[in-house]
Design goal:
heterodimer, A: 112 residues, mainly beta, 48% strand, B: 115 residues, 0% helix, globular
């Protein structure tokens, strides 16, 4: 399973765009990149998943360069409620092996 | 969206007793369920993978005789912490994958405190 590296923490003011980058140099050909959000004492919540290029949904965008050795989660116009830990995970979810290895995550603090 | 529930949400037990935690997929059938443990200010650590109708696969360092997992149906998996000790106090989270796959849906977690 590919290991991921993220910044331990980030601070942002309300209304700003936040970009969290994750490094996954050993990503395998079949690996997908998935981001989860976790609030204290709650289970993780799926944010977005991608394989290459750019993926966008109603809450975030995920940018993946051609070499796929990193990815960037972009949260537009964050609010106080976006304060949480964000995890980047890579794993082969296309061949029946769905194991996800959680790294340390990035603690995002949104400041009013 | 798919919903996974856990029961109880919090439990306090005395050292030496056993505790059962249930994980249910409410609106989908889960072919695979995972159990994680999370200590304060740490990341989730995978404990075991549970497939319906078969024995669970435990991660290295996780005692299968202490953490009993039963995945008896496509909507229910249970984790029993046997002879619990204070060091077993943690946040236990389950997740489930539907037959459609591949997204994992996480439960809300169960806070176990062993006194």
């Amino acid at each position: 399973l590919a290991k991921t590296t993220q910044p331990i923490s980030m601070d942002s003011y309300e209304g700003q765009e936040v970009n969290i980058t994750c490094s996954h140099n050993n990503i395998a050909t079949n690996d997908y990149i998935t981001w989860y959000q976790q609030f204290p004492s709650q289970g993780p919540r799926f944010i977005i998943q991608g394989y290459k290029t750019k993926v966008t949904n109603e809450v975030a965008s995920l940018f993946i360069p051609a070499d796929r050795k990193s990815s960037t989660l972009s949260l537009p116009r964050v609010s106080l409620s976006d304060t949480a830990v964000y995890y980047c995970l890579v794993g082969d979810q296309g061949a029946g092996s769905y194991q996800l290895t959680f790294g340390k995550g990035t603690k995002l603090s949104v400041i009013p | 969206g798919a919903v996974v529930s856990q029961h109880p949400s919090r439990v306090i037990c005395k050292s030496g007793t056993s505790v059962k935690i249930e994980c249910r997929s409410l609106d989908f059938q889960a072919t695979t369920m995972f159990w994680y443990r999370q200590f304060p200010k740490q990341s989730l650590m995978l404990m075991a993978t549970s497939n319906e109708g078969s024995k669970a696969t435990y991660e290295q360092g996780v005692e299968k005789d202490k953490f009993l997992i039963n995945h008896a149906s496509l909507t229910l998996s249970t984790l029993t912490v046997t002879s619990a000790h204070p060091e077993d106090s943690s946040f236990y989270i389950c997740s489930a994958i539907s037959q459609a796959g591949p997204e994992q849906y996480f439960g809300p977690g169960t806070r176990l405190t062993v006194t």
